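Repro:
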Amino acid sequence: MPGTRHGRDRKGGRVATDSLRKAVMTSNQSVFNHVGLCVADRERSRRFYEGLLGFQFWWELDAPDEGTAELLQLEEPVGLHATYLVRDGFVLELLDYSARAVHAGSERVMDQVGLTHISLSVADLAGVLSQVDGFGGAVVDGTTSARSAMVRDPDGQLLELLADGWLSVLPPRP
């Protein structure tokens, strides 16, 4: 921030933390956009996320190979199709490829560095869990309680499902 150094103003006095935070946030503003998820079968994944978990289709695009290959660090041809689903303001981008085979990595675990899971609240946890298999997913053995469970989507992505009763005990969001 021009005119300040390490939380002090030009005259050597302290700059209020809130003022400094506001200045930094306005000069370096970032906005959450989406979480991208590579899928093997777009329709199967849409059925799981829309039919079971209440996501809504927003839009989709076929990205041109030029530019996309560089951004994704993939060799051409890429053949990227992106489908955007929304739930409660959260945007999930399903990525599938017509010009290349996708491959599965190792099954992620909670102590593996990086994105571990996506968490969603559901109104009827038991009801949703009873339908997971029918939508191509799987309930993770030994994780189910009255308040929570872990499931895997059709491609193995780990999802935490929480009964929505816990929302009433959360502090207000900043």
